[in-house]
Structures are given as structure tokens and as C-alpha cells.
Design goal:
This protein is of the alpha/beta class. The chain contains 26 helices and 27 strands. Helices cover 44% and strands 23% of the residues. The strands form 5 sheets. Strands 11, 12, 13, 14, 15, 16 and 17 form a 7-stranded mixed beta sheet that branches. α22 links the parallel β23 and β24.
Length: 806
């Protein structure tokens, strides 16, 4: 082969390399991307880069090399966030033993701006100076990122939520959404909605999908309404506008815009509610106006009702003054003054009670009491009013198994007095009033369910008044009723008290025929396991009463006591029955006769029985009235004793043991307030700042033989007590509100003294502060009792008997 010219050959090789180098650089320029070669050293040193690399960062090559010495770490010296991100990416790639990475980040430029770039890097097998070489391609994606951001801003500012869905054969595939959509539906970029285009599966939504799905599969534009729920579960309505913007694998891609039209959808409902509220406001206004009128009328009536007893008090005082030497006339005036004063006090107490109820300050207490005792108190209180109008009043007990209970006897008695007082007042003279007590089955262990029914044949009420009966200040507008004094507060107070006790009160009434009130109360039961009422008697007891129900309920009690019994409905029948038993030698063990019966009353029946068979059989007279008025006549006729209706088991047992079984049981007896008291030699300290009140109390106490010393305030009382010898004072009556030092503080200071009598001397509050919290405050301070003003004389003597008669 001919020998080739070496110089020609070399020239050919160099020419080929030049061509290849030209082609390479041309390719690098045409790619429009940055291509660079770096060492994987601590500086990520730049070995080589194409021209686009320098155009991308905005630095000429020579200037870049002179300033940064081909060290990217120096280039990023003022951009540590981007540099740290780059270093972390390279480091994690090496640790993961991967041969490259891809990173989207921002790159600083010479003019201070930043551009978004996509860095794609591959680690090669080439090494330079012991460092591995990596090849990097940097693509400028700034325009794409900014477009995405602008699109996102546009999405976020659209009047609703924006999402992209692909509609395939299976349904809707979620592709993405704006921030408002994700926040509302609580979904991520990857998660869609549970039920197609919404988060609820309702019948309406299913119908909408069925109507529009085939159209969306064809890429048609659609509009419809969907129901959805927010994060709190509230219902919302959306107008959905969906447009096909792309196709992927022959499946349309929709841009779906949700616009909240809940307000529009519910506008009619809102309008309806506004109309209802308008009606409610109108009704409330009318109610308020009625309440204002009621209060105005109440104040007018109160002015009249207060002035009436005040007029009586002033008038009777004037009359007594002009007839001072006429003892009977003065006595009559004083009696009328007392009645008017009590009426005035009752009016004031009702207003105060209603005020406490409305302010939520009425407290219900629990204490042990006996229903029999409470009922007898009612009889004693109501008897004068019943007798004044010549009413027939009876009390009957049905299936009463538990007499001893726990509750608030004062407030229960107040409710009963309100109802019974109304029955007496609003029933024409000679009317009939019945009070029935029934123990019903209780679903609560340890409690009894009691039903108290009050029935009268009085004026009755119209249906329109019954609806507002329990509202404060309301009174019927009948002429017969308006003539009766009252505040219109009693029934409102009663209902509130019953409600506070978890009970109920109902009323039925027929105009001109009468009314029936029913009160139902749950009362806690006392432990009666130790009480044995079972009695043994050889012969039966006869019950005589013109009221069949009264006979049956009394016999029911006798059955519970284990005593045989019979009953008749008149005095004549009783005399005949007793005579037959006497002739057969099987006399009754005892006879219980109603005091008031038609034709032949209890006293006359007793007299005739005694005339016929003698005095061997005990006879007791029963009545719902206090027997004091009939005592002398009844005893003269041959009666052995008295029973107060309703005859509860305990009262019957005691009476039978005492009169029929001749057991020597002693009942606790409270000395009658009618008897004259004598406390001679007893010393009492009266602490009162009001001169008139002090004079009244001093005279009343002095009339009982008490030596009274006075103090004008708590400080003076304390000094008097400290200067006295031990045991000098038998009792201290202490007002609460006084200048210098009040009664509570004075009591606490007396109790804190080191003397022996400081802890035992009785201290009784004598005050116009008569609310329950006042009583509790007095006892907390160390007082023994509480006596409210105006003074109840009987209550005053009970306190004297308790503390200084011992």
C-alpha cells in the first residue's frame, strides 16, 4: 500500500475534530438549555458550561470566572436558602446511592431577580483530581411556573370553588382544585369527593348525575344545582358550571366551577322565617303591652287593696280614740285593726314572694314533717274564714300509706292556703269545699307521689281567664270577683313553687259551677320501718258520716291498722246500729261520728247514744274544723274526745290507743296561746333602733311580767351584755339592721366572748328581714331563732316558752 502523507493525515484529523466541535457547540446553542459539568467537591466546582448557562444567570463568562472563580458556593453566598436546598438534594442523592436527581427551584441572576428552573443532574463514572464528575442540565421554567401561579390566583379569586375532573366510564376522577375548594371540602390534592362532584349522596344529587352524565361523557357544557354540606354539617346549595377543557385517553377533562347559591335557594325560607319572626315580635309586643297594662292595673288594684285595710286601721284607731272609755267599742276596733293589719301584711308578702320568684331567689328547702300536722295547721288557719261564710269544708285521705315525708312544709302550706283561700273567697256563702289527698304509685325509689285535689262549687272561671290564671297580676273581670280583695299573684306564686318542687298544678273550672285544682308533688319518704301501727281489738269500730267517701277512707285506715269496722251515713242509722249491737252483747269498741251532719249532727247523735246505752263505749267527734268552739257542748253530750279530719293512720292509732285501749300515752301538747303567760323575774335585753318598734315590743313583753332592758344598736347591746353578770339576761331579742353595729355582727361578738353564758344565752332575731336567707344568716351568726316583724303574738309566746320558761 502506498504510504500515506502523515501531514495530510494529521490535517484531516484536525479538520474532523473542528467540525465535531462546531457541531457540538451549535447543538448546545440550539437546545436552549444550560449544560454544565461539575465536580462533586465541597464547592461543587464548575468545570465547564455552555454559553446558555451564562445567559441564564446573566453573568458574562469572564466576569463570572473572575468574580466567583467557578465556585457555585461563592455564587450562592448571598442566597443560602437556595444553596442549602441544592446541597441537601445532592447529599441525599449520594446517600441514597442514586445516580442523579431532579430539582425545581429558583436561581439568582446578576440583576437581583430570581427565575424558576428545573435542574436535572446525572453522576458520571468520570473522575477529575479524585472527584466524581456530574453533568447538569438546567431548564428555564419560569414562564410555566408563573402561568401556574397566575392560574391559581385566578382560580382562587373566582366567585366559588374550582376543580378539575376527568369523566370516565366509572364516574368522576378528581384531578385537582383551588385552595378554596380543598379547604371547604377538606380534601387534599390527591383526594376527591366521596360522591362524584359533591360530598353528600342525596336523591336530588343522584337525579342530577343521571340527567347530565351522558352529556359530560360527550364533552358538552352543563349547568345544574347540587346539594353539599360544610364542615359543621350545615346544608349548602351550589350552582355547578362545567366546561370540557381537555381530553385524556378519550376521556373528557372538565373545569368545574361551584358557586354558592344557598342564600338564593333559601331566600324564600328566610323570608318565611322573617315573616314568622315578625309575627312573633308583634305577639311579644302585644304580650309586653298586656303585661304593662296588667302591672298598671295591678298597681291600681294594689293602691285600692292597700288603702282599704289602711283606711280601716286609721278609721278604727280614730274611733277607738273618741270612745276611749267604752271598753267594748275599743275592743271591737282593736279586733278590726288586727284583721286589717294581717290583710295588709298578706298583700305585702305576696308582692315580695313574686319579686323573689322572678329574680330566681326563692329557695326550696328539705325538712322532715308530718302531713297530718300540716293539715291540722291548715284547718286552724282557715276555720275562721270557713265559718264566717258558713261553708261546708271537708278533708279526705285516700290510700295514704306514708304520712311522714321530707320536703318544704312552709311553701307547700303556702300553695294550699292560696288555693283554699281562693276557694273560700270565691264561693258564695253556704258553699261546699272539698280537699282530697291521695298517694299514688311512685316510679322513684324512696319517694311518694302525692295528689292534692281542691274542689269547690263557687263562681268558677271563664275559659279565657283560665288561660292566664297563672300569670302574675291577672284577675277575672267579673263583678262578683272584683269585689273580693286580692293582688292577682297568689296562683302565679303557687305554680312557681310547685314547679320548683318538680311538681305540677292543673285546673278545671266551669263558670258559675265551681273549680277543681289538682297539685301533684313528689315527696321524699322518711324511714318509718320502726313504726308499728298494727292494733288488736276484739270488736269493730263504727264510723258515722253523711259523706260516703269519708266513711270509706276512714275505714280504709282502720283496715290498715288491722281493726274491723262498719259505717253508716246518718245519726239515725248510727243509733239503730249501736242499739242492735248492744242488745246482742257485741258492742262496738269505739264510735267515730262526724261533727256536722244534716238533720242530726254529731253532738245530738252522741247525746242520744249516751241516753240509750250509757257511757261505756268511747265516742269521738271528727271534724275538719277546730273543735275549740264546740268543745263544751260536745263534752256535755258525752263525747270522749276529738279527731281532726282527715283522720290519718297515726292520728287514728293514737286516738284508739288512748280512748278504746286505755293506754296511758302522752301526746306533746303546746300550751294554748289564749292562756295567760307569766314570766315574772325574767330579764330580757331588747335591741332595737326604731323607737316605735322598741316601745311596742317592750310593752308586749312587759305585760307578761318580763323585766325589759333596751339597747339602740348592736354596739350598745354588746356593751350591756359585757357589763352584766353571767346569767343576768335570760334572752336577747336582736334587730338585724341597725346603725353603728348590726345585729349579726353584735351576735358574733357576743358568742366570741370568753364568759360562760356567751355561748348559751338565747339570742332571737326580731326583724323585718323575713326572707329565708335572712333566717339562715341569723342562725349562721349564732342566733337561736328568727321572729319576723310585724310580731305574731302567739309565735312570740312560743319562743318565750321555749327559752325562758325552762
Amino acid at each position: 500500500m502506498p504510504k500515506m502523507d502523515d501531514s495530510k493525515n494529521r490535517t484531516g484529523i484536525d479538520g474532523n475534530e473542528a467540525v465535531a466541535d462546531y457541531e457540538y457547540h451549535t447543538l448546545m446553542r440550539l437546545l436552549g438549555v444550560s449544560v454544565s459539568k461539575h465536580l462533586l467537591d465541597e464547592n461543587y466546582t464548575l468545570v465547564w458550561a455552555n454559553d446558555y448557562y451564562y445567559r441564564l444567570i446573566g453573568w458574562p463568562k469572564e466576569e463570572y470566572e473572575a468574580r466567583f472563580h467557578n465556585r457555585p458556593d461563592l455564587y450562592y453566598a448571598n442566597h443560602q436558602k437556595q444553596w442549602n436546598e441544592l446541597v441537601e438534594t445532592v447529599t441525599s442523592t449520594i446517600k441514597a446511592d442514586r445516580n442523579g436527581y431532579n430539582l425545581v427551584t429558583t436561581m439568582p441572576r446578576k440583576d437581583g431577580s430570581h427565575i424558576w428552573v428545573n435542574i436535572s443532574n446525572v453522576f458520571s463514572d468520570e473522575y477529575v483530581n479524585g472527584y466524581q464528575v456530574s453533568y447538569t442540565v438546567i431548564t428555564n421554567i419560569d414562564d410555566q411556573i408563573r402561568m401556574q401561579k397566575e392560574q391559581s390566583v385566578t382560580y382562587d379569586n373566582l366567585p366559588g370553588f374550582v376543580a378539575r375532573f376527568q369523566v370516565n366510564e366509572e364516574g368522576f376522577r378528581f384531578l385537582g382544585a383551588n385552595e378554596r375548594f380543598r379547604d371547604f371540602f377538606d380534601s387534599s390534592e390527591q383526594e376527591g369527593l366521596a360522591f362524584g362532584l359533591s360530598n353528600v349522596n342525596t336523591e336530588k344529587n343522584r337525579r342530577v348525575y343521571l340527567q347530565n352524565f351522558s352529556r359530560m361523557r360527550r364533552g358538552e357544557r352543563v349547568h345544574f344545582t347540587l346539594q353539599a354540606t360544610d364542615k359543621t354539617g350545615g346544608n349548602l346549595w351550589f350552582q355547578v358550571n362545567a366546561n370540557c377543557i381537555d381530553w385524556i385517553n378519550d376521556n373528557p377533562v372538565y373545569l368545574v366551577i361551584y358557586i354558592d347559591i344557598t342564600d338564593i335557594t333559601e331566600q324564600r325560607e328566610l323570608q318565611r322565617q322573617l315573616e314568622e319572626r315578625s309575627v312573633m315580635l308583634h305577639d311579644a309586643l302585644q304580650t309586653a303591652e298586656r303585661a304593662n297594662r296588667s302591672k298598671s292595673e295591678f298597681l291600681s288594684r294594689m293602691s285600692h287593696d292597700i288603702r282599704t285595710p289602711m283606711n280601716a286601721i286609721i278609721g278604727m284607731t280614730a274611733i277607738a280614740g273618741t270612745h276611749i272609755d267604752d271598753r267594748d267599742r275599743v275592743k271591737d276596733c282593736l279586733g278590726k285593726i288586727t284583721l286589717s293589719s294581717k290583710l295588709l301584711l298578706g298583700l305585702i308578702n305576696e308582692v315580695l314572694d313574686m319579686s323573689r320568684i322572678e329574680s330566681g331567689n326563692l329557695a326550696i328547702t328539705e325538712e322532715e314533717f308530718c302531713l297530718n300536722d300540716m293539715l291540722q295547721n291548715l284547718v286552724t288557719i282557715l276555720q275562721p274564714s270557713v265559718m264566717a261564710k258558713q261553708h261546708t269544708f271537708d278533708i279526705r285521705a285516700h290510700h295514704l300509706r306514708h304520712e311522714n315525708v321530707i320536703g318544704d312544709p312552709q311553701h307547700i302550706q303556702q300553695v294550699f292556703l292560696n288555693i283554699l283561700s281562693n276557694a273560700i273567697k270565691y264561693t258564695p256563702a253556704g258553699g261546699k269545699i272539698m280537699f282530697d289527698i291521695r298517694e299514688k304509685p311512685s316510679n322513684t325509689a324512696g319517694y311518694g307521689l302525692y295528689e292534692f285535689t281542691f274542689e269547690d262549687n263557687g263562681y268558677g272561671m271563664k275559659s279565657e281567664f283560665i288561660e292566664k290564671l297563672f300569670s302574675p297580676f291577672e284577675r277575672a273581670d267579673d263583678a262578683d270577683v272584683l269585689a273580693v280583695q286580692g293582688t292577682g299573684l297568689g296562683m302565679a306564686i303557687s305554680r312557681n313553687i310547685v314547679k320548683l318542687m318538680n311538681g305540677d298544678i292543673k285546673v278545671k273550672s266551669t263558670y258559675r259551677k265551681g273549680s277543681t285544682f289538682t297539685v301533684e308533688l313528689p315527696l321524699k319518704l322518711q324511714n318509718e320501718s320502726s313504726v308499728d301501727y298494727c292494733l288488736f281489738m276484739k270488736n269493730a269500730i263504727l264510723v258515722v258520716d253523711d259523706d260516703r267517701i269519708a266513711c270509706e277512707t276512714t275505714c280504709e285506715r282502720l283496715d290498715e291498722l288491722g281493726i274491723r269496722n262498719e259505717w253508716v251515713l246518718s245519726g239515725e242509722q248510727a243509733i239503730q246500729k249501736i242499739a242492735e249491737k248492744h242488745q246482742s252483747g257485741k258492742d262496738f269498741s269505739m264510735v267515730i261520728i262526724d261533727l256536722k251532719m244534716p238533720k242530726m249532727d254529731g253532738i245530738e247523735t252522741t247525746r242520744l247514744i249516751r241516753k240509750q246505752i250509757g257511757s261505756d263505749i268511747p265516742i269521738l267527734l271528727a271534724s275538719a274544723y277546730d273543735w275549740m268552739e264546740y268543745e263544751s257542748k260536745a263534752l256535755a253530750s258525752g263525747a270522749n274526745g276529738f279527731l281532726v279530719k282527715p283522720m290519718l293512720k297515726s292520728a287514728l292509732a293514737y286516738a284508739i290507743k288512748k280512748h278504746a285501749m286505755k293506754e296511758n300515752e302522752h301526746a306533746s301538747v303546746v300550751e294554748s296561746s289564749r292562756q295567760k303567760r307569766d314570766y315574772k323575774g325574767k330579764k330580757v335585753l331588747l335591741v332595737e333602733d326604731n323607737e316605735l318598734n322598741r316601745e311596742i315590743a317592750e310593752v308586749i313583753l312587759a305585760e307578761s311580767g318580763i323585766r325589759v332592758e333596751t339597747a339602740k344598736n348592736g354596739q350598745e347591746a354588746l356593751e350591756r351584755f359585757m357589763s352584766s353578770s353571767e346569767g343576768y339576761y335570760g334572752l336577747i331579742f336582736m334587730d338585724l339592721q341597725m346603725p353603728v353595729m348590726g345585729g349579726l355582727e353584735s351576735t358574733r361578738k357576743i358568742r366570741s366572748l370568753s364568759r360562760k353564758d356567751a355561748q348559751i344565752v338565747p339570742i332571737v332575731a326580731m326583724t323585718a328581714n323575713a326572707f329565708r336567707e335572712d333566717v339562715e344568716a341569723a342562725k349562721t351568726a349564732g342566733m337561736n331563732e328568727h321572729l319576723a316583724k310585724p310580731l305574731d303574738i302567739d309565735r312570740l309566746h312560743q319562743i318565750l316558752d321555749r327559752f325562758i320558761s325552762r
